[in-house]
Predict the structure.
Amino acid sequence: ESFKDYIKTETLAVEIKSVDNASFEKYDLNGHETGINITKK
């Protein structure tokens, strides 16, 4: 949550949402279980 602005700037993201969705493929990102979904506009 505290890094949203930084991540959006570095990745050119328009929006970052935190959701509870078990269907995302899980990734280990520096020791944190992470699910990522990308939607292009």
